[in-house]
Amino acid sequence: MTGTATTAHSYGAFQEAYLALLRRIRDEPEFRNAPRGFRSREILGVSYRLADPRERVVRVPGRRTNLVFNFAEALWYLSGSDSLEFMSFYAPSITRYSADGRTLRGTAYGPRIFNFGGAGFNQWDSVVSTLRADPDSKRAVIQIFAPEELLIADNPDVACTIGLQFVVREGRLHAVAFMRANDAYRGTASDVFSFTLLQEVLAHQLGLELGTYTHVAGSYHLYESDSAFADRVLADRVAAVHTDPFPAMPPGDNWPAIREVARLEQRVRAGGVAMGRADVERVGLPRYWEQVLALLCLHARRVHEQTVDADLLALLDPLYAGLVENCWRDRVPATF
After folding, report:
1. What's the whole-model pTM score?
2. Which of 141, 149, 210, 214 places its Cα 20 to 30 Å from the Cα of 52?
């Protein structure tokens, strides 16, 4: 490398950045305001860099990271879906952002990535071809925010993400996410998980190593309604639910496995098929994606049958099992 200077503060894993910025915005906000009536504390122009984007989860028990939702949201993006039914199965409260009761618009990044403007423009394929043709390119950009979103009166669902940029340097795929606004307690945890997972899928598709991830937010804010939750997390003295490293995605093209997981997710979500451990193992997915399918099937059994499948839980890697058990403890089975 020719230099190490950067305007973004560097961290190793996401949890370090998450806790540092949550503490800063709680204790030292630049502004206090109430856009659309929601009181919040705010810092402008936040940016940070992660040296290891694969370490994309907050492990502090008090945060109660919802790993099932995280993977479901990333799969929702990768499937190109705008279905409210899909995401409300994992986060029922998201229904309040749908204007028509059937779809999500601003929140649904999948159609923006794979069918921008409904015109069939696949930005993912464009990024792949751009970087294959010129690895030094600075033009591998996926645009998310669309100006016309602001023309919709009382729009409840305006995209928080402006865009994603992917850059190849020294054999590694680096990513930069640009946010118009980012929620310091909830939103940033979901966004970083999804964006770094997309980065990893793309890196392997291109045959590259995973580089750094940089997160840039115009408005970084903490809603007052989440202040008590933030206090709980920052007061937690237990550093991690589990210390195993976050699993690495298999090398090469992961799209066949992604499509198979998406197909099976739809079936178990609809209740047409219940998959236990033997069913999941019989599919023959790579271990990484088998774990994702097991997580989704665990949730489906919990919703449809009001039970936690012990055999499916036992199939999970210790880190995943620990995060799931920590998230679900003391909760009614079908409720997040």
Report:
1. 0.95
2. 141
